[in-house]
Every structure is written in structure tokens, then in C-alpha cells.
Specification:
Elements (H helix, E strand, L loop, with lengths): L6 H35 L4 H15 L6 H13 L7 H22 L1 H7 L5 H10 L5 H36 L3 H24 L31 E3 H31 L3 H13 L27 H21 L4 E8 L3 E8 L5 H5 L2 H8 L5 E4 L6 E6 L8 H6 L4
Parallel strand pairs: 1-2
Antiparallel strand pairs: 2-3, 3-5, 4-5
Helix pairs in contact: 1-2, 1-3, 2-6, 2-7, 3-4, 4-7, 11-13
Length: 410
């Protein structure tokens, strides 16, 4: 008689088959949940996936987006050994939470659902509106409509909040009692904090309260008088020279004419000198009568082409912008003089003691950007404890040749 196999081997085989079948079922459910997820959110699952996704949305509306996640969590909770004792509570919470979302979407689209119940093709209307996310679908809409008819809009809102909170408490095992206790704790801590702020006595100051005097250069006190920046305009210098030359010409004209008349009348001494020269056979010295042409032949630039006051305000505004720009980069200085030119204006600036010129010249691109100009040039001013910042003028001016010829430098 052949010996019988032990019963332990049969039990082990049975458990192995059950474990294998359980693993296969788990993989199938996970694959189905992933397929539902892609079917609902994408259109890359083919004809079957497209029909399945439209069907889920048509039945549940917006709540259909939660269905793939719920299926995935349902499978994980049921297959994890550590969650075995909590699976019924968690699954119940997921169902209640899903119903709360259905009621919430029905509450948001209550008017659309009420109009749908007045139409003859009720099923088609509810399904299409659910797919278009305008209702809670073919299943959720009648449920929401019935709740609204039974307990009204206020009761509908209360039931939505109740379902959402209960579903959350079931899933997280966070009871209402704990929730109320935490609310009381937060309220008590808030009261203690406000009470401590009212009764808290400020401690002694860490630093002495006596303010340290700032240097005169960095003093924050407003000046008694507005600081005036001298503006030297090249055109005003030319106009001044013109006025002086014109006055000089008026003064010199009578004497010159009289001198010419006097020179044209020969005296007795000159007559005798000429006669003596003729007698001695010397050549008569010729007197040149050529005169250089005057600058009056050249056109003068019209003086009314400029608005001196407006241009002065523009350069003063640029000076203030220049000071603010350098101060934003940590360089403290003040403009002490402006020399306006036809193309470039030079701003003379005194810097805080210890500031290097290279620090300002390194900011030339940033200064040009803030002043909205093409470029600026920074260099030391000879004979002065200041730097010169050359900024292109907003509008180029014309210098006539006559002004150049009549200038003192020429």
C-alpha cells in the first residue's frame, strides 16, 4: 500500500494558488483603474476607452473624475495587510465622500437640473449635461433633485457639508470630538497670545536711545533752502560775447571813421617827407588797402529757436535722476554744477569721501539704462574735487560757424 502524502503539502499548495490568484486580481483591478483614469482624462485609449470615459462622465458628471482614484484606493486598501482592519471604515468613507461630491455638483447646477426635468427627453438631457459637466450626470442629478425637493436648498447645503465631513472623518479616523477639542485648543491659544501681547512689558533697550549725529554730508534734515545747481549754458556765453562785441563796435565806429578821415588828409610834414624821398630817388612805399571780410556775411543762428527755461528744467530733472540712480546702487553724491553743451551735458558731482571713481564708472551702463540714454562717460574734473558725468542731451543743438568765429577761444 503506497504511503499517503502529508496534509501540509496540500495546504501549502492551496495557499499558494490563492495567493497567486489574489495577486492576479490585484493587478487586474489596478490595470482597470489606470485604464479608467486615462479614459476619463485623455482621448488616447481608443474607441472603447472613449466610450467608457464619456459614459462615466455622463452618469456622474464632475464626480466621475474621482471614480478612477476611488477604484485604485479601494483595491489598495483591500489588498494591504496593514490596512485589513480599517478597510471597511475607509471604504465607507470613500462612498460617503463620493455622494457628497455628487450632491455638491447637483447643488451648483440646480437650475440646469430643474430645467432638464421639464424637458421630454429627460434621460438624454441629463446624460449629455453630465458629460458636458453642466450637471451631476444621469445618476447624480435625480439624487440631487430629490434631495432639493425634499429638504430645500438650505437642507441641501447642510447635507453636502455633512457628507463631506463624515467621509473625511471616516477615511482619516479623525473623529468629530477630536476636531472640536482642537478648535477649542486653538481658540484658547489665540486668547492667551492676545492677552500676553497686552500685558507684556517691553524690556530695556539694547542700544542707547541717544541718536548719533550724522555727518553733515549725510544729514537727513531737510535743507532750509532748496539747493540751487548752477547751470552754465554755452549759448548764453556766445550771446554775451555778441553783445559785448556789438557794443564795442558801436563805441569804436566813430573813432575809426574819424581816424580814417584823418589818415586820408595829408599833413605838411608828410608832404615834405614825400618830396624829400622823391628828390633822393627812393621808391614810394605802397600802402595796402585790403581788409578781411567781416563775420556779418555769415548767417547767425536764430535766438528764438530755443526754450532756455524748459531746457534748464530738463537738465535739473536729469541731475535729480542721476543722484537717485547712484543712491539706489549705494553711491551717495550730489550734483554741484551743470555745463550744458549742444550735444552733451556734463554734470559735476561731489561724492561721499572714500568713494572711488571706478565704482561710479563701473555703473555707467546702469546709469545709461535708468536715464534712458545710449551711453554715459565718467571722468575726473581737472582742478576740482568732483567727477564729471557726460550725458547726451535730449535734443541736439546747432552751432553756427559765425558763433565759432566770434567766440573768444577762436
Amino acid at each position: 500500500m503506497a504511503p499517503r502524502k502529508p496534509a501540509k503539502q496540500t495546504t501549502a499548495k492551496t495557499k499558494g494558488k490563492e495567493g497567486l490568484s489574489k495577486g492576479i486580481r490585484l493587478l487586474l483591478w489596478l490595470a482597470l483603474s489606470l485604464f479608467l483614469l486615462f479614459s476619463v482624462f485623455t482621448t488616447s485609449t481608443g474607441i472603447f476607452g472613449g466610450v467608457l470615459g464619456k459614459g462615466i462622465l455622463g452618469l456622474f458628471g464632475f464626480a466621475g473624475y474621482l471614480l478612477p482614484f476611488m477604484l485604485f484606493a479601494w483595491v489598495v486598501v483591500g489588498s494591504a495587510p496593514s490596512l485589513e482592519k480599517h478597510k471597511y471604515r475607509v471604504r465607507t468613507g470613500m462612498i460617503i465622500l463620493f455622494l457628497g461630491v455628487l450632491l455638491l455638483t447637483g447643488l451648483l447646477h440646480a437650475e440646469t437640473i430643474q430645467e432638464a426635468f421639464k424637458k421630454p427627453k429627460l434621460i438624454t438631457t441629463l446624460f449629455v449635461s453630465g458629460y458636458e459637466l453642466k450637471s451631476s450626470g444621469l445618476i447624480g442629478s435625480p439624487f440631487s433633485y430629490a434631495v432639493g425637493q425634499l429638504i430645500g436648498r438650505i437642507g441641501h447645503i447642510i447635507l453636502v457639508v455633512f457628507f463631506l465631513l463624515i467621509g473625511f472623518f471616516f477615511i482619516t479616523s479623525y473623529s468629530i470630538i477630536h476636531f472640536i477639542r482642537d478648535l477649542k485648543t486653538v481658540a484658547e491659544k489665540g486668547k492667551e497670545l492676545s492677552r500676553s501681547r497686552k500685558t507684556r512689558d517691553p524690556g530695556p533697550p539694547i542700544l542707547p536711545e541717544e541718536p548719533r549725529p550724522l555727518p553733515e554730508f549725510l544729514s537727513k534734515e531737510p535743507p532750509r533752502k532748496a539747493r540751487e545747481i548752477p547751470v552754465h549754458d554755452y549759448d548764453k556765453a556766445l550771446m554775451k560775447e555778441d553783445e559785448e562785441d556789438t557794443a564795442q563796435e558801436k563805441v569804436d565806429t566813430p573813432s575809426t571813421a574819424a581816424q580814417d578821415k584823418t589818415e586820408n588828409i595829408p599833413t605838411a610834414e608828410e608832404t615834405r617827407q614825400v618830396e624829400g624821398d622823391i628828390e633822393k630817388g627812393l621808391a614810394h612805399k605802397k600802402v595796402s588797402t585790403y581788409r578781411k571780410p567781416t563775420t556779418a556775411l555769415l548767417h547767425r543762428k536764430p535766438r528764438n529757436a530755443r526754450n532756455a527755461e524748459r531746457e534748464k528744467q530738463e537738465v535739473l530733472s536729469t541731475a535729480r535722476k542721476l543722484e537717485e540712480t547712484l543712491e539706489s546702487f549705494g553711491v551717495v553724491g550730489k550734483v554741484v554744477g551743470i555745463t550744458r553743451g549742444p550735444i552733451v551735458n556734463r554734470y559735476e558731482m561731489e561724492l561721499e569721501p572714500g568713494t572711488k571713481i571706478s565704482r561710479v564708472s563701473g555703473l555707467s551702463d546702469d546709469i545709461a539704462l535708468h536715464l534712458a540714454v545710449s551711453q554715459v562717460r565718467v571722468a575726473a574734473v581737472p582742478g576740482k574735487a568732483a567727477i564729471g558725468i557726460e550725458v547726451p542731451a535730449q535734443q541736439n543743438d546747432v552751432v553756427s560757424i559765425r558763433d565759432m568765429f566770434e567766440s573768444r577761444d577762436f
